[in-house]
Amino acid sequence: MTPIIRPDWWLPESAATDESIYRNRRDILKALGIGSLGAGLALSGGLPAGADTSDLYPVDRNPSYAATLNGRPMTSYEIATTYNNYYEFGTSKKVSANAQKLTTEPWPIEIGGLVNNPMMLDFEDLVRKMPLEERVYRLRCVEAWSMVVPWSGFPLRELVKMADPTSDAKYVRLTSFLRPDEARQQYRSRWPFPYVEGLELAEATNDLAFMVTGLYGEPLPKQNGAPMRLTVPWKYGFKHNKGITRIDFVAEKPTTFWMTAGPAEYGFFANVNPEVPHRRWSQATERDIGRRGQQMETQLYNGYAAQVASLYTGRDSGRDIFF
Ligand code: MTE
Q1: pLDDT for res 18
Q2: Separation of 241 CA from ligand 1 center, angstroms?
Q3: pLDDT the model gives residue 323
Q4: Atom of ligand 1 nearest to the CA of 80
């Protein structure tokens, strides 16, 4: 018999202790005929976005990504949807009410730059073309808090394949919406909106890079980045831009929101490393917001080294790729 070799970030489903609770909640709501829209309303206090894609959820979990370590539980839906960073809607963690002002239907998405198949399509058309699955991932914010979330979505690689970049394309630039009438901070603040992030093409096609369209078996709530946000779990959370409207394939390293807003603090790569401190605080430990801020040790690449360390072979000696 061939032994099953698991990567070291793999943990059995049973380790995600509160998974049964959320599955039960969904089953009960389904049985009551309330469904995902009712669940979102009842439990988050906010409207889930993309009501006309709610028939797509829940999607099957890909069991390869059970993200807990040593029995670390998933962060509750309530916490994951009420403790957020979304500077377009304010700088506190309580942005969920403000974020409801964003109109997410329709949601045009443009895919362009150095590609053979440039396209402009609505989010709904895109998400219906993509193979959706659920993955439980850790999220580590540069502010030294973290959580564990069951995201639904599709591998970013699928979108790259569809766009078919030319050989000149070396990076992907992801741009979030610019709608100051709905996101008042875009008028008021001096931040360089729209929020822009970027990845090397090899990072974007890594198995872990995931385009998120749902959370906890429901369409993605607006405060978490509806209708579509990125998650690259080996990098700090600020790389995971929300409300993406444009994806460009480019030859030069994109200038990101944080490279402009705080060039002395945040670089392009932002790979999680407990040994490379932020200029004002240590990154050696993190507070699990799902467990009342319980302190835990931060892991290199947020625990995903087996998946991603090879991306950085030969250039991981300095600070560059970790900040
Ligand atoms: N995307 C946009 N457009 N604007 C933001 O301010 N904040 C980032 C990221 N994506 C941010 C964003 C930061 S700092 C983090 S930690 C994560 O979103 C938080 O995601 P969550 O609120 O779903 O936990």
Answers
A1: 52
A2: 6
A3: 81
A4: 24
